[in-house]
Specification:
With about 180 residues, this protein is mainly alpha-helical. It folds into two domains: about 35 residues; about 100 residues. It is about 90% helix and about 0% strand. It contains four helices and no strands.
Length: about 180
């Protein structure tokens, strides 16, 4: 079927020419690529090149690992972990001793309550008349107050010793850390 319109006929001819040109360029590229792959590049050369890349990446990986290890060791040295470990142990010793002493003072205080209550009940049991109750209460409470005051002073002594211990520990630990980093 022949086309009568000259514009459409011309357009069809240009498209045929473009397709033929593309085929020629594609064929030339395929031939050139085949020649390059078969004549210029030797398969054993490609294997050698691949092996050199593998070695290069392995070496780069080792350099990276060594760098990370050096950074890690430097940070560990800066943090002075031995001194930090000793400081934590010393703090625990202070804490444990203080908690033991405070616990003893609390037990002593509970014993004061128990003794005062027991004394009060015994003296009430021995009272002969109601007027004796006032004297019993005064006697028991006065004794309890004196003993509780002594317990409170001893407890404050433990807390004061804890405060002094933490102050000494802080100064000693900070000095050790500063000296360890110099």
């Amino acid at each position: 079927m022949a086309t009568q319109n000259p514009f459409i006929q011309q357009w069809i001819e240009f498209n045929k020419l473009a397709i033929d040109s593309f085929k020629q360029v594609a064929n030339a590229n395929v031939e050139g690529t085949n020649q390059a792959l078969t004549s210029v590049i030797d398969p054993s050369g490609a294997a050698e090149l691949t092996q050199s890349y593998i070695t290069l990446f392995k070496d780069l990986g080792q350099v990276y690992t060594d760098s990370i290890n050096n950074i890690f060791r430097t940070q560990v040295e800066v943090m002075n972990l031995q001194t930090t470990s000793e400081a934590y142990q010393n703090f625990w010793d202070i804490y444990l001793s203080s908690m033991k002493d405070l616990g003893e003072k609390q037990v002593e205080l509970m014993q004061l309550y128990i003794n005062a209550t027991s004394s009060y009940l015994n003296q009430v049991n021995n009272a002969k008349k109601v007027e004796d109750l006032g004297a019993v209460q005064t006697s028991v409470l006065t004794e309890f107050q004196d003993n509780a005051k002594k317990n409170m002073e001893a407890t404050l002594g433990v807390l004061n010793a804890l405060n002094q211990g933490i102050e000494v520990w802080t100064t000693k630990s900070l000095n050790a850390m500063v000296e360890g980093n110099n």
